[in-house]
Amino acid sequence: MNFLAGVDEVGRGSIAGPVTAAAVILRNTSTINGLNDSKALSSHKRQELDSLIKEESISWNIAFISATKIDQINILQASLLAMKRAVEGLDFEPDKVLVDGLYKPDLSNPSEAIVKGDTKHESIMAASIIAKVARDKHMINLHKKYPHYGFVHHKGYPTKFHLNALELYGPCKEHRKSFRPLRDKIY
Fold first, then answer.
1. Given this model, what pLDDT does residue 187 score?
2. Domain map (residue ranges) of the chain
3. Going edge to edge, which strands form the sheet with 111-114?
4. Which residue, of 75, 95, 128, 129, has the fewest CB within 10 Å?
5. Which of 47, 51, 49, 64 is nearest to 138 (CA)?
6. Which residues, given as ranges, of the chain have pLDDT below 50?
């Protein structure tokens, strides 16, 4: 049996919270209806598929890289590190890794970067979905700790509400200080 892992990340454009990557090895016989790029699905549909993917996959893993680490190494390197950790945490060694995007992490496994892979390969779609669900849950938990930023609503992305909250309260430790508009301000 060949183990083909799909890998994707979410949260690159956020100004707060971690970047999150997932790796998924689907069964060759798996038929999960409704798989798509996570951005094309409703929150409810992602939740449904998240459970199915985890039940129907051979292995899956999720990795988070903190805002602090993102600020230290930059978002591209943090995304690649999250993807590498997601793959390395799988229960089975993949024979090949398909990565969404232009870049692929430094892996010992054969791998291929595929632009718009999250619209072409089911294993990448599955990774996109479980990464998004995991990151959203993480941001909802951060909202409980930092309610005045509204993370439950925008998940750390730079909405008008979020930017106004930054003006009022300044950043918290979950904000990426190397990202605009944070890096342009002195807090």
1. 57
2. 4-136
3. 57-65, 19-26, 4-10, 96-100, 111-114
4. 95
5. 64
6. none
